[in-house]
Amino acid sequence: MRRIGIDVGGTNTDAVLLEGNRVAHAVKTPTTADVTTGIERALGRLVDTSGVDRRAIDAVMIGTTHFTNAVVQRRDLTPIAAVRIGLPASASLPPFVDWPSDLAALVRGEVFMLEGGHEYDGRPIVPFDTEGMRRVARRMRERGLRAAAVASVFSPLDPSCEQRAAHILRQECPDVSVTLSHHLGRIGLLERENATLLNAALVDLARRTTRAFEDALAKSGITAGLYITQNDGTVLGADMALRFPVYNFASGPTNSMRGAAFLSRLDEAMVVDVGGTSSDIGALRHGFPREANNVVEIGGVRTLFRMPDLLSLALGGGTLVTPEPLTIGPVSVGYRLTERARVFGGDDLTVTDIAVAAGLIDLGDRARVATLPAALVNAAVAKMHAMIEEGVDRMKTDAAEVPLVAVGGGSFLVPARLTGIAKVVHVPHQAVANAVGAAIAQVSGEADQIFQNLSREEAIAEARRLAEERAIDAGADPATLKVVEIEDLPLAYLPGNSLRTRVRVVGDIRSVAAPPTR
Amino acid sequence: MPALRPVTLDEIESIAIGAWILGTGGGGSPYLALLNLRQLYADGKMVSLMDPADLADDDRVAIVSNMGAPLVGQERLTDPANIARAVTMMEEVIGRRFHAIMSLEIGGGNSLQPFMAAALLDRPVVDGDCMGRAFPEAQMTSFAIHDLPMYPLTLIDVRDNAVIVARAASWKWMERLSRTACVAVGSVASTCKAPRTGREVKECGILYSTTKAMRIGHTVREARCDHRDPIMAVVEAEGGLVIFRGKVVDVNRRTTEGFLRGTASLEGVDADRGSSFSLAFQNEFAVGWRDGVPRVMTPDLICVMDTVSGDAIGTEVLRYGQRATVIALPAPPILTTPKGIEHVGPRAFGYDLEFRSVFTSPSPARQ
User: Fold this and answer.
1) What's the CA gap between A174 and A183, in Å, rounded?
2) What is the pTM of this model?
3) What are phi and psi of A428, to 5 degrees?
4) Which range has the worst mean pLDDT, A82-86, A130-134, A167-171, A442-446?
5) Of A89, A138, A396, B321, which is most buried, counting CB atoms within 10 Å of its CB?
6) Between A119, A189, A397, which is nearest B186 by CB?
7) How far apart are CA B311 and CA A422, in angstroms?
8) β-bridge mates for residue B155, sequence order
9) In sequence order, what are the residues at sequence separation of 6 or more whose Cβ sits closer than 8 angstroms to the Cβ of residue A376?
10) Residue B32 and residue B71: Cα distance in Å, rounded?
11) Is the Cα dihedral A323, A324, A329, A333 positive or negative?
């Protein structure tokens, strides 16, 4: 089994070749503005240095922060038609109601609100206004709107209104790309709809980016399947991924945590990923990042994405250090570390300079930091260590001592001993943990809905069956499926033992797990 | 005519934060109501707050609440037009115009329902409620404790369905009848409870709880702004107590008799390391045990806060692994009278415990 994992970061594009359970080769190249060229170069170097047969590669997994950046930086977004189905309910809070106004202005092509939707128990609120939906489609044609986001009340329980809306759109304007909210999510209309709106606005960009990935692969002579990594440490096939760009918003930090789990062979641990500008701290449970509890904001938009629960500290290799009074960060020289840090001939005092002076790592010209006062170096190291120690403790949810895996280019900043940490684990290939995490990604399936008049066990079994079905549809090998999360929530005030049950399963990718067929 | 106090949108943002804390785990997040008010204010509406002392004895006051399951509310959302309709319908029933509108419960989303109605109907909101927190049932109000009449009640849904409960044999019957109608229309409905006179509000209401929620919200925001611990700021400002700091290690929820009941277990951190804490809830937190010994119980307000953010945590979103701080805030005096304890004390929730306020029996360990 041979897989390539690629991490397209803001600064570097990393690529690794995984043979079985071993990292065979790893390369780091600068990210390029067009993305494709950087991936092509990384793939070229990886294939050349390893001498692997291009046709013997089973799968290529790419992780990217491209879509998050588009939202955060307000670029490459498509104006969309937002269709809400649920009147007379929900009338006073239309789509985009809690968006930052600048982002809403870019994405809001036109808003339509129609009668329809369902109750929690599956009864229709009122009949779906199909004539109104046809008018929406005609209006979209007139306006030249090319993407639609459709959200119906309680669609996670009954998606039929959204499906009928999509059917009408296909009939009336077949070229329009349609995102349906029940594909994206959980109970919580506004948050689910927000995800749907963001997704619709990103579908064009996703299509272009995925094509760029495919081109890069084709130019490199690699014929293996292309997968895109998701927030939850799993992958979607490229054809699915281009329909759901919102699913990979947080794939960067997720991949580094998954990579840390793989490289350290630890399933339960804390992870700190020290980069150039920041350190991300998270917790591994069953080899996956623990998810955030609360509503997650992306570019100011509330969503219910499955996101890893992370604490970001403004502490990385390029973080600036001021001696009097001693302050560390939050500003970093970022990717210009190799020209601006003192050990590399620059004038800025960075965390890396302190680390070299303290003998934590040997980088650049050590003589250039020899004159730093020992008191300053010691105090700065103590302060950095305290920042990491406090951050790790804040994210720790287990009273027992657990191991801490240190990854990322700046992992030399992590102290050897921390309170509440059994041991600090450094691993080979720690600088490319992201790409390793991409290479080992799995496929998942999730069910999250309200069950009535079933026992708790029956409801969980039914949710598990649905989740497994979805995972297999997404390309999982049925033999490898395992449950990673079970959550159940009885609903206050609802009759008949109503239980909201969420089950998530993951499994290996079928095409990879199965022996190559040729 | 006494002066009314205009409430700014910024103050409503504070009420939303404070009311979520006073929700003691229940009542639903005020976020959706807040979004509605942001829009109403953007459209030029402005709500005024009325000192209950300025009510004339025979003024009529509408008592409003959104009834139902918070989870259903997350899908159906909440619309000011509905709560306003419940109020106007009650005016038709009793043949009198309401002078002002008041909240049933200041805890959670219902803190802002009267503001939505008031914005549309151009009436003031009375500074007060009849719980001083959130409770799950109709008979758990200061008006019920004072044995005031419990009918009529109007109940509205989004489809132009409307129900009038003309009479009920008791507060518990009113709870049962209105709950049945609520479930029939999708487990979310806008209600106007039995109208109150100005005199009843002044004598039997829990007064100035709206400004209390506003003040607590303001304390939280100010502390955040100054990078101080918002939880300690609230405890100090409101005469509260920190009961326990820990991490949630187990949450066990179940539905019985139509409510969210369950327990949450915490393991101590910091000064509480080595101890455990167990919380029982019925929609709201009811009793807390430290190492098996009852430590805090209803009607004292038991609030669970996210240790890091200082946000209140509802019983529905309480989750394994959360770092949480349990605090207690004093209950309104009416709730701790013998009659009050009958309605809202631990036995009213099925716990065979004699009510002892945490504020009269502080833990020796903490002295």
Assistant:
1) 20
2) 0.85
3) -65, 155
4) A442-446
5) A89
6) A119
7) 31
8) B163, B191
9) A323, A326
10) 12
11) negative
Task: List alpha helices for B122-257, DSSP H.
Answer: 142-145, 171-184, 198-204, 209-225, 230-238
CA A29/CA A45 separation, integer angstroms: 9
Chain A residues near residue B35 by CB distance under 8 angstroms: 93, 97-98, 190
How far is the C-alpha of A402 from the C-alpha of A485, rounded, in Å? 21
Burial status of residue A298 (CB atoms within 10 A of its CB: 0-12, 13-18, 19 or more)? buried
The residue-averaged pLDDT of B97-117 equals 97
Which comes out higher in pLDDT, residue B89 or A493? B89
Q: Check if the beta carbon of residue B56 is closer than 8 Å to that of residue B195.
A: no
Residue A190, number of CB atoms within 10 A of its CB: 24
Contacts of B71 in chain A (CB under 8 A): 120, 187, 491-492, 494, 500
Choose the mutation target among A491, A501, A502 for the interface with B, i.e. most B CBs under 10 Å: A491
Q: Looking at the predicted structure, is the pLDDT value of residue B247 above 70?
A: yes
Structure tokens at B276: 């455990």
Residue B150's closest CA among B104, B117, B109, B83?
B104
Q: How far apart are CA A469 and CA A507, in angstroms?
A: 12
3-class SS at A346? coil
Residue B184 main-chain phi, psi, to 5 deg: -65, -35
Query: A350: which DSSP letter?
Result: B
Predicted confidence at residue A399, as pLDDT, reads 65
Strand partners, A16: A5, A26
Q: Which residues of B touch A488 (CB under 8 A)?
A: 253
pLDDT in tens, B7-31: 999 999 999 999 999 999 988 889 9
Give residues with Cβ within 8 angstroms of B248, minimum separation 6.
B264, B265, B266, B318, B319, B320, B321, B322, B323, B324
Going by their DSSP bridges, the two strands A12-19 and A2-8 should be labelled as antiparallel
Dihedral sign computed on CA atoms, order B188, B189, B190, B191: negative
Q: What is the pLDDT of residue A277?
A: 79
Residue A491, token pair as written in the block? 């609903």
Q: Quick one: DSSP state of residue A387?
A: H
Q: What residue type is assigned to position B7 of the chain?
A: V
Residue type, B298: T
Sign of the Cα pseudo-torsion (A235, A237, A242, A243, in order): negative
Contact A509, A468 (CB under 8 A): no
Pair type for strands B284-290 and A12-19: unpaired
Helix (H, G, I), strand (E, B) or coil at A228: strand
* Residue-wise pLDDT tens digits, A412-460: 999 988 888 999 999 999 989 999 999 988 888 888 877 888 888 898 8
* Gap between the Cα atoms of A306 and A294, Å rounded: 10
**Which of chain A's residues have a Cβ under 8 Å away from the Cβ of B80?**
92
A415 touches A385 (CB < 8 A): yes
Query: Given an 8 Å threshold on Cβ–Cβ distance, is B81 in contact with A92?
Result: yes
The residue among B296, B11, B23 whose CA lies nearest residue B135 is B23
- A108-142 pLDDT, tens digit per residue, is 999 999 999 998 877 899 999 999 999 999 999 99
Q: Which residues of A touch B (CB under 8 A)?
A: 86, 88-93, 97-98, 119-121, 123, 125-126, 153-154, 187-190, 290, 293-294, 394, 397, 399, 488-495, 497-500
